[in-house]
Write a structure and sequence with these properties.
The protein has 14 helices and 14 strands. The protein is of the alpha/beta class and 376 residues long.
């Protein structure tokens, strides 16, 4: 098998949409030449597309505007016809960039029909999202069928979450759990002005206020602290919580909702917490943001109080104050704030080092090199 240090990445999210797993991985493969294609916009058009962008010296981002989306009816029922124009466009890019047989890196199973049409030296499926749901309709059924085929054909499959890993591991023995990591962005010089003025300690919950969050425990946390309980989320995530539950928790005088404009802004605000709370119900679905918030809390070295139901606890023993029952949760909060526990803090920081994106990408490269990919 010829060696190549080139990647053609077909993504389901645009590079500039937000800071994503895709950007974090691709930006750190600095010795690999990468062509990153934003997803088609679903509107057939022969108009002029934006010029390719170079966010990094080794990464070139091409627009796919004007082509059918891979979940469009024509793409689904007649892939050859639906792909024809897009395929010509991709081949033209590869020819222009003098990239003959790259490692094909897919972020959606809906791109599967392209695998037979593009010359490539290896196939990677990085599953960052849940594409299939029991009641997801035609699109979900199509994704489920193609995902199985894609996993079986891939030379490596990476899964961003445990639930995705357990779903895919049976289709390919080279399936690896590769969670999202911590972005080493520069730390803020000043705390969020909306947060700095509130009475301390700042007890914080950050993320998605969904039905997986135990609101009763958040209420108990508010009652147990003499400081402030901050609920940092986006407006969209806040609205997932039933209105009566939201009104109930925010009716406490020391509970302050902080609406962030984006997920990175959530992580920035969370950095100002004195104590992190993870009050999740048993069986609550793991999410990308929840994992990222947890990793940020690890890297801060500040105490974390969680229910034992958090799936993350199994991977980070000794780092978290784990509550066995509702009565213990507020007691552990007080203990965590009063305790000076260097051993726990060092444990957190050590685990956090292994969760940084640099470590994640090193592990990806190690696993791919074992198969002969992206090596010198």
């Amino acid at each position: 098998m010829p060696k190549t240090k080139e990647i053609l990445c077909l993504s389901n999210l645009a590079w500039t949409e937000r800071t994503t797993r895709r950007q974090m991985i691709m930006s750190r493969m600095r010795d690999v030449r990468i062509l990153y294609l934003d997803p088609p916009d679903g509107r057939l058009s022969s108009g002029k597309r934006p010029e390719p962008q170079k966010p990094y010296p080794h990464v070139t981002v091409y627009s796919s505007a004007g082509f059918l989306a891979p979940d469009s009816p024509l793409f689904a029922t007649d892939p050859v016809r639906g792909l024809r124009g897009y395929l010509r466009y991709i081949r033209k890019i590869l020819q222009k960039e003098k990239m003959a047989a790259p490692l094909l890196w897919l972020y959606s199973p809906l791109y599967l029909p392209l695998c037979d049409k593009l010359t490539h030296n290896g196939l990677v499926y990085d599953c960052a999202d849940q594409f299939t749901r029991p009641s997801g309709g035609r699109k979900s059924a199509l994704a489920a069928k193609r995902e199985v085929s894609l996993c079986r054909r891939a030379d490596a499959v990476f899964a961003a979450r445990r639930d995705l890993f357990h779903k895919l591991e049976g289709f390919n023995p080279k399936t690896y759990l590769l969670p999202n990591g911590i972005d080493n962005r520069p730390k803020k010089n000043e705390p969020d002005p909306r947060i700095a003025s509130y009475p301390r300690p700042l007890i914080g919950f950050a993320g998605d206020l969904s039905d997986g969050v135990d609101i009763a425990l958040l209420e108990a946390a508010a009652d147990a602290t003499e400081g402030t309980l901050l609920l940092v989320t986006t407006g969209e995530m806040r609205d997932k919580l039933p209105r009566e539950d939201y009104l109930r928790i925010t009716s406490h005088e020391n509970v302050v909702p902080v609406i962030a404009e984006s997920q990175p802004a959530i992580l920035d605000a969370a950095a100002d917490f004195d104590l992190f709370l993870a009050p999740y119900r048993e069986g609550a679905e793991e999410s990308d943001l929840r994992t990222r918030v947890f990793f940020v809390s690890l890297a801060s070295g500040k105490p974390i109080v969680s229910t034992v139901h958090s799936v993350l606890l199994r991977s980070f023993p000794g780092c978290v104050y784990a509550s066995e029952n509702p009565e213990e949760f507020p007691k552990l909060m007080k203990r965590a704030l009063l305790s000076d526990d260097p051993a726990r803090r060092e444990c957190q920081l050590a685990f956090a080092d292994g969760c940084r994106w640099e470590a994640r990408v090193s592990e990806i490269r190690r696993l791919l090199a074992r198969e002969g990919f992206l090596t010198d």
